[in-house]
Amino acid sequence: MGPSPFGDPMGKSTDAGPAPVVLSVGGSVLLGADAESDARYFADLADVLREFGRTTPLAVTTGGGRIAREYIRLGRSLGLSEVELDEVGIDVTRIHARLLAARIGPPTPLPPPTTTAEAAREVHRASPVVLGGTEPGHTTDGVAALLAVRLKACRLVNATRVAGLYDHDPKTHPAAKRVDRVTWDEFRTIVHGSAGTEAGQEFVFDRLGADLLHRAKVPLAIVDGRNLPNLRAALDGRPFEGTRVE
Ligand code: UTP
Questions:
Q1: Does the pLDDT of residue 60 top 50, yes or no?
Q2: What does the alpha-carbon distance between residue 124 and residue 111 come to, in Å, rounded to a whole number?
Q3: Does the beta carbon of 197 lie inside 6 Å of ligand 1?
Q4: Angle between the 82-104 and 65-77 helix axes, to the nearest 10 degrees?
Q5: Does residue 116 have its Cβ closer than 6 Å to ligand 1?
């Protein structure tokens, strides 16, 4: 096995500059306990992304979190189809992208791109680029994975509400231990063994996304998104607390 892409601060940089990095921020990270701490988090996250994105092409996806799930529940009671419910979820993820992009400021594109093709074009001239969902049937983790493959990113960082991948569900098993490193085969078994495919479902990582990253050999880092110094370390490719999938 070659040197770890997580231990190489420059990633796969070339004469054309540093290789792009992709970040997926879960909606549950953006929407925490109360409005005041969420405002502080959006502002602090915007500062980190603006600074990092100045020197490295960075694409960021934003999840829909509990607000998306609330509207999806309402839509389901109204009899909307699963595709229509996915579209409700996409709209909410795009509101989060708009809020974060506006706080980051120019040159970050506003309104946010609505396709991965557009985001991939923008990232080399207007980094950091922020976007929400694209089409029904996957999640913003899946969008981030597609973008990472398109951009030949040196890593994808997944910012979640927990500090990585655990051997048991930490919500129900207080003694659950974080796993620092897993192989793609182990990770895909976990991801494919979890929840179904309905709109608004919460699972470890998007299935299609995990398969795409594995095939393209893009390493994945899973970190607690609310710990910004640690998130920054993962973006930089420095040692971080969390789980590496390689
Ligand atoms: P999220 O990306 O937030 O998914 O999209 P998630 O895993 O359910 O939740 P968090 O935010 O990481 O906790 C919310 C919903 O929007 C639809 C899906 O129904 C998804 O569950 N969606 C999102 C799409 O259909 N396509 C997209 O590209 C993005």
A1: yes
A2: 17
A3: no
A4: 150
A5: no
- Return the CATH architecture of domain 19-245: 3-Layer(aba) Sandwich (3.40)
Instruction: Say how many Å lie between the CA of residue 62 and the centre of ligand 1.
Output: 9
Which candidate, 62, 138, 65, 70, places its Cα nearest to that of 102? 62
Q: Which uninterrupted H or E stretch holds 58?
A: strand 58-62
Residue type at 220?
Answer: L
Query: What is the pLDDT at residue 145?
Result: 97
71-95: per-residue pLDDT in tens?
999 999 999 999 999 999 999 999 9
Minimum CA distance residue for ligand 1 atom 20: 200
Pair 130, 118: CB distance under 8 Å: no
DSSP state of 112: P
Residue whose Cα lies nearest atom 7 of ligand 1: it is 202
pLDDT per residue over 122-177, tens digit each?
A: 999 999 999 999 999 999 999 999 999 999 999 999 999 988 888 877 778 888 88
pTM exceeds cut of 0.85:
yes
Q: What is the mean pLDDT of residues 97-101?
A: 98
